Amino acid sequence: MDEKKLAKNKRVSKYLSVILVIFALIYNVSPVDFIVDVTPLIGIADDVVVTLAAIVNLYMKWRKK
Hints:
Elements lengths: L2 H6 L1 H20 L12 H22 L2
């Protein structure tokens, strides 16, 4: 299947959003970070941004029918 057709497939797109949320949750519990959590506020903020972006993406994909 062509990559563009696969990316436009709504069913595939929805499941990729679920996978994105799973990876975001794994990122939050893993010791490897883009910005270390020891840094006050900034270290935690990157975890929050990654998680919120994944959840908003999931919501937007699953809300559309």
